[in-house]
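Exercise 4. Each item below gives a protein and its sequence. For each, produce the structure-token representation.

Item: Electron transfer flavoprotein subunit alpha (Eumeta variegata).
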Amino acid sequence: MVASMLRSSTADINFTCKLCAAAVSLLLGRIGRWSGREIACSALSLARSALAERDNESCFFLRRLQSTLVIAEHNNEVLLPVTQNTLSAAKKIGGDVSVLIAGTKCTPAAEAISKAGGVSKVLVAESDVFKGFTAETLTPLILASQKQFKFTHILAPATAFGKSVLPRVAAKLDVSPITDIIGIKDANTFVRTIYAGNAILTLEAKDPVKVITVRGTAFPPLPLEGGSAATEKAPEGDFKTDLVEWLSQELSKSDRPELTSAKAIVSGGRGLKSGDNFKLLYDLADKLNAAVGASRAAVDAGFVPNDLQIGQTGKIVAPDLYIAVGISGAIQHLAGMKDSKTIVAINKDPEAPIFQVADYGLVADLFKAVPELTSKL
Ligand SMILES: Cc1cc2nc3c(=O)[nH]c(=O)nc-3n(C[C@H](O)[C@H](O)[C@H](O)COP(=O)(O)OP(=O)(O)OC[C@H]3O[C@@H](n4cnc5c(N)ncnc54)[C@H](O)[C@@H]3O)c2cc1C
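Answer:
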């Protein structure tokens, strides 16, 4: 900061000197032998160069002033991969990148993130208060960090965690949250989808602090190597709340890859006809080391639990391979998977909209095609 201020005042002095030179040149011309045109040109060019230099300096100064706080999502032991995608977005904004890790015993997660290249500082807050990572306890901690370090941007992944915490932070800061961004044009200009992914919106944010959730699939993960960020204690305070009390949680355990970070996904829809028939997809997924997903119709019908839902109101995924089985391809489903690198569709209806986004389509009865495919892998 001191360096930035020094640079700024040097820029101001330079600018003032250049403008003085322009004025002196005018005066000299007046008492000397220059023609009116020569005097005006010389003064103008000096003034222009002063302005151009000042603009360059202030751009540099502004870039130095950007500082982003990334709210890490983790389970105390390990970072969720989407935090690395959010870090990439933070780096794209430019300026300093700090990370806030809040949890109960989160030193391992803090150590992991301090190795990420381009992270300058890791703020760690360890307390039982942060059990369950509730928005009500994290918000005052984030606000205290923002107050102390004057971050210009606060970022979190657009997951259930980020979607719960950041709107509260934005409301407390009296700024508009900018949700689920898929692109960054500059420090004030962001890209996001609207109308279930059917239109792309570019917005310029004028709020002094930008509070942003980031769509993980739109940014590459920042490797956790090459850096050695300083770790320090986050601001302390009374972050207890009467508003909520975290009691317990039951996490579904699975040996399969997590849906949002899986390289391959086999996804089933209403065409599967029952939850038992999803076994066909699990067998195929086992061969591909894939995660299993589902359409909302399959979830609503009770075939599979709702944490498998992909789409506008489910999870957003972009694996290398997405196999849609017995899924029609409604826009709300496409909103969650159409950025997948290779899409394969198996559907008995040749007119099913899913074939419009599929790289490979198989018009067939899934009850024959899927076991055949599995047996050949
Ligand atoms: C606000 C809103 C949000 C929504 N959010 C989501 C969301 O997040 N995710 C989502 O998925 N949906 C969402 N929906 C619902 C969405 O509009 C569709 O209703 C849903 O995606 C349809 O699921 P489906 O493709 O499994 O079922 P269907 O549309 O019924 O398609 C079933 C497909 O299976 C095929 N089929 C049937 N039998 C066989 C067979 N034996 N072999 C091969 N193919 C077969 C059929 O040809 C058909 O194409 C949302 C809707 C709204 C209004």
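Check: The chain has three domains: 2-64, 66-233, 259-376.
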